[in-house]
Amino acid sequence: MPPKKIPTVIFDLGGVYFTDGTDRAITVISEKYMINRQAVLDIFYGEVGMAYRENKISIDKFWKTAKQSWKIESESTDELIRIWHEGYVPIEGVNEIIVQLKAIGIETLYLSGTTKERVEYLENKYQFLQYFDDGVFTFTVGVRKPNILPYQSVLQKTSNVPHNCIVVDNRVEYVIPAKVLGMHAILFTDADSLRAKLNHTFAILGWRVKQLC
Does domain 21-86 have CATH number 1.10.150? Predict the structure, then answer.
């Protein structure tokens, strides 16, 4: 099938649309409560953290386990949640690119490994979902990236075929499944390079769309 004139661009959220708030939270929690950084990292990225992100345990179970592990049971869970969520702020320039894409008729989707509570917090604060046509949060699928299932799920949301889709992510291991399924991929570093890489991809694939500026 020849390329359509209009492609679909699929964005990661944490690390692409928003800053990496988890990395910041690990540092803040480690320093504020005088906990070894590795011990904090092991909770966020270890078995309990993955179970929470895959919607296999509740937020209450996650934080109860975390506080027990860090020996800070008396500390406020709400404060810990605030520290984690506040680290996610929009990356300068990315939203402007999405607005430009939509203005020239390009479908924009998200594919994110965030949590339900974080989505609610960020949507309440930034109202970011309005800039996307649709998308997939991996907690609704039950497995995280780079498992191929979330990528298959987001393809079901698009009006396009895989060859006409571009996945934008900030981690190499998360663009590999996109390529396996026949999608194109861009490794994100900053908004300016993303704009240039999108324009380059549009041009080499022969998509007749207006260049981003």
Answer: yes
With contact defined as beta carbons under 8 Å apart, do 183 and 167 qualify? yes
Count of beta carbons in the 10 Å neighbourhood of residue 43: 22
30 contacts 40 by C-beta, under 8 angstroms: yes
- Domain over 8-19+90-204 is classified CATH 3.30.420.280: no
DSSP codes, 58-125? -HHHHHHHHHHHHT-TTS-HHHHHHHHHHT--BPTTHHHHHHHHHHTT-EEEEEE---HHHHHHHHHH
pTM of the model: 0.93
Q: What is the pLDDT of residues 166-184, one digit of tens each?
A: 999 999 999 999 999 999 9
Q: What are phi and psi of 135, to 5 degrees?
A: 165, -175
